[in-house]
Design a protein that fits this description.
By secondary structure, this protein is an alpha+beta fold. The protein contains eight helices and 22 strands. Helix 5 crosses helix 6.
């Protein structure tokens, strides 16, 4: 049986119990090594706690342990017989919004926690908006601390209804609500006898069975060229291959393709994968493509189907999450890193818009953790897909040309 991989992220307000949920998930699925558990037991005992504090399995920074909050994005890898998991435990505090965006940017599923006593709060809505903005396919609403509200079905139902209505308005395609108590282990890995009114899956059961990945044949192919291979050996004197990792779709020998941004068209005559020739390759395989015509192709170019190529533009309208303490405003010069291509650009405008980070009105600059619309003018053309169509080729980074610092993560509109 083939075991696939699910990338997921957690989010929620401070003290909603994200790290405890992740720790419980690791502990009850038997994904914690004995020495790790012993270290947590010792640390918990030194604090006077009778039971192990499972949040310590993910809160690795000293400041996190002292304050009892998550600050950094903690990645954890675990597996069950059905699936492998790459989990990003992201911070809940508003000042770490950029960390949540980073953790969820590659996730196919986000678990958003809500404290059953507090219900849906501002940070819950912010995290739902970010999940919608990043086009996360699946959202799990984990209504935590059900033990503190007497495991009442009515409390869970009201929170689930409110959140689902809000997420649906944002365009989130799927919400699965699960009542849990991370501290006691209810409905995390094992079904809870204390909530027999709930007939749905546990958190782990849902993670093991949710559909993963999209059929690559359903989206147009995209191959950002990383390098040109010309060995000039005796047995391959005329070999010229264009190597890269397929970002989306399927490539086949015989396909008519365009090389962007030049727009020259040609045909694929060969595909090399792991040292052997193949007829077909798909995302996310790394390949070398051979073309029929000797045209100018270099690092930073994009190979795409001739009849389904992205638009090439210098005018970029996007939503960005600002990551740096240095603010971003009109007139600022930046580098736009898109796939394997990097071009100079200038920020033309910050249009009106509130965005998930809640900047009302028309801000003249974006500060750290702000999310909002931006208009850029690139000095060279870019083959850019709308982010809603392709996460891989609709995303980009803004970089400070002076020192190479990453300023913002962008999603093309």
């Amino acid at each position: 049986m083939t075991v696939d991989t699910l990338r997921l992220a957690t989010a929620g307000s401070v003290d909603d119990g994200k790290s405890t949920l992740v720790g419980r998930l690791l502990h009850d699925s038997k994904s914690v090594l004995a020495d790790q558990l012993e270290a947590v037991e010792r640390a918990s005992a030194s604090r006077g706690q009778e039971a192990p504090d499972l949040a310590l399995l993910t809160d690795g920074l000293r400041a996190e342990r002292e304050q009892g909050i998550t600050i950094d994005v903690a990645h954890r890898y675990f597996a069950t017989p059905r699936r492998r998991f790459i989990l990003a435990d992201t911070p809940g505090h508003v000042q770490y919004t950029r960390n949540m965006v980073t953790g969820a940017s590659t996730a196919e599923l986000t678990v958003i926690l809500v404290d059953a006593r507090n219900g849906v709060v501002e940070q819950t809505r912010r995290h739902a908006a970010i999940a919608a903005l990043l086009r996360v396919s699946h959202v799990v609403l984990a209504v935590n601390k059900m033990d503190l509200v007497g495991y009442q079905e009515s409390v869970f139902a009201a929170i689930a209804e409110e959140f689902t209505a809000y997420a649906t308005e944002l365009g989130v395609p799927e919400v699965t609500a699960i009542p849990v108590s991370a501290l006691r282990g209810d409905n995390v890995v094992e079904a809870s006898a204390r909530m027999d009114w709930y007939g749905g899956p546990t958190v782990l059961a849902h993670l093991e069975n949710v559909p993963v990945g999209a059929d690559p044949s359903l989206v147009p192919a995209r191959l950002p060229v990383q390098c040109v291979i010309r060995p000039r050996t005796a047995d391959r004197p005329d070999y010229r291959g264009y190597a890269g990792r397929i970002a989306a779709g399927v490539l086949r020998v015989g396909d008519r393709v365009s090389v962007l941004p030049s727009g020259r068209t040609t045909r694929i005559t060969g595909i090399d994968l792991l040292g052997r020739a193949v007829d077909t390759a798909w995302a996310p395989q790394s390949v070398t493509v051979l073309l029929a015509d000797d045209i100018d192709v270099s690092r930073g170019d994009l190979i795409a189907p001739a009849d389904a190529a992205p638009a090439v533009t210098r005018h970029i309208e996007a939503t960005v999450c600002h990551l740096h303490e240095r603010p971003l405003g009109p007139g600022d010069r930046v580098l736009v890193k898109h796939g394997t291509r990097t071009v100079h650009a200038v920020v033309e405008d910050l249009p009106p818009g509130t965005g998930p980070a809640g900047r009302p009105g028309r801000p003249d600059r974006l500060g750290v953790n702000d999310i909002g619309p931006v208009v850029l003018r690139a000095f060279e053309p870019l083959p850019l897909d709308p982010y809603a169509r392709s996460r891989a080729t609709g995303a980009f980074l803004l970089i400070d040309p002076a020192d190479g610092a990453t300023l913002a993560a962008g999603m093309a509109g």
